[in-house]
Specification:
387 residues, Aspartate Aminotransferase, domain 1, alpha/beta, 2 domains, Aspartate Aminotransferase, domain 2, 5-stranded mixed β-sheet, binds pyridoxal-5'-phosphate
Length: 387
């Protein structure tokens, strides 16, 4: 075996607190950060080796438009993980997924266009997607009275399409709920959007993080309608913990969507070469790491449920299908609309405030369990102590 067994050991809180990334730099010393979607795990050994080699060789210049091997590496990964056949010649490089969403929105929404997304949403969808001449339409989820409360409300989508929705940004798996959208729902969305002439920007950044028991269905495998109207944006950044290195991918199928994105100016030289090097190594050699990671996250998900039930029984949650993010309903804790602020102040534990994800997030918070079991337990212990 060319690389040693997968190491998922996490340092203690003191060492994590010295990290310079947003998750840890954003909290005071001693505060347990369970915020930004980064994990605390080591990166895969083959990725570290590829990054060290690039630095040793002083190979740190600009990213070319078509980085050697990257499209092929992603196509191989997509085939192995999801049985999705990707044409490596049509994998384009972006600095990150948000950059792709912003640029594609500019290109595809048109003046006066409406852009929609499921609400609650990754906070920048609310903040960054509106622009001069483009309004956003947060679309509600089906709701608690329905069989599948976190499904997209298709009547609301129909109404938005009738009002001129031009672009639907569809995060699958969804952040913050961690829900992996079933194929029937994806097909229904595709049919509606294609019939109305709207584009779907399928944000699949969390796709590799589907946990045991669930499946990730890539948008471009859903149907002809999906392939015609959809663009996939994805990245190695979440699963392999490389977000700061800046590289993401845009994928299309032949047809209208591929023709439309051909007009997008090249974004590759805004990406980071280390991001490209890391992504290629992750897609080529990261399967063993990813399998170990998913097993660890599955364990942490169970542990989180047990600890919450024992120590914070008023917290309600649906374990996510995917991601290391838990969307917690804390409305019964009696802490008001901003429970994360109270937990932070009293318990020295930082969760992401639910309200940042949109109006439906009032009284909710997002917890990141992409860390050691010890720190998952400590997170819940601190929440309980704050009560
Ligand atoms: C659904 C979703 N989309 C996009 C992003 C941001 O990705 P990037 O850093 O590639 O812009 C995130 C980050 O957490 C996310 O959860």
């Amino acid at each position: 075996m060319p690389f040693p067994a997968v190491d998922l050991s996490v340092p203690g809180l003191e060492e994590l607190g010295r990290r310079r990334s947003a998750k840890w730099a954003g909290v005071a010393p001693g505060v347990l950060s369970s915020t930004i979607a980064e994990t605390d795990f080591p990166i895969p050994e083959p990725v570290a080796e590829a990054l060290h080699a690039a630095i040793r060789e002083d190979d740190l210049g600009y990213v070319p438009s078509r980085p050697a091997g990257l499209g092929e590496a992603f196509a191989g990964f997509a085939q192995r993980r999801w049985d999705w056949e990707v044409d490596p010649g049509h994998v384009r490089v972006l600095p990150d997924v948000m950059d792709g969403l912003i640029e594609l929105r500019r290109l595809l929404a048109g003046s006066g266009g409406l852009v929609g997304f499921a609400d609650p949403a990754y906070p920048p969808f609310h903040r960054v997607l509106p622009q001069a001449g483009v309004a956003v339409r947060p679309l509600p989820l089906a709701g608690e009275s329905t069989e599948d409360p976190w499904a997209l409300d298709l009547d609301a989508l129909d109404a938005a399409l009738a009002d001129g929705l031009r672009v639907l940004v569809l995060a699958n798996p969804h952040n913050p709920t961690g829900r992996a959208l079933p194929v029937a729902e994806l097909a229904a969305i595709a049919e509606r959007c294609a019939a109305a002439g709207a584009w779907v920007l399928a944000d699949e950044i969390h796709g590799p993080l589907v946990l045991p028991g669930a499946t990730h269905v890539p948008w471009l495998t859903v149907s002809d309608a999906a392939r015609e109207c959809g663009v996939v944006l994805t990245s190695a950044s979440k699963a392999f913990n490389l977000a700061g290195l800046k590289a993401a991918l845009m994928v299309t199928a032949p047809g209208a969507a591929r023709d439309a994105v051909a007009a997008l100016p090249d974004r590759a030289n805004r990406a980071g070469l280390l991001g490209v090097v890391g992504a290629r190594a992750a897609f080529e050699h990261g399967d063993a790491y990813l399998d170990a990671l998913l097993a660890q996250l599955d364990h942490n998900r169970t542990l989180l449920g047990e600890r919450l039930a024992a120590e914070v029984p008023a917290a309600r949650w649906t374990p996510p299908d995917a991601t290391y993010l838990a969307w917690l309903d804390l409305r019964d804790l009696g802490l008001g609309d901003h429970p994360a602020a109270v937990l932070h102040r009293r318990g020295r534990v930082a969760l992401s405030p639910g309200r940042h994800y949109g109006a439906p997030g009032a009284g909710w918070a997002r917890l990141n369990f992409g860390t050691s079991p010890d720190l998952v337990e400590e997170t819940v212990r601190r929440m309980a102590a704050a009560l």
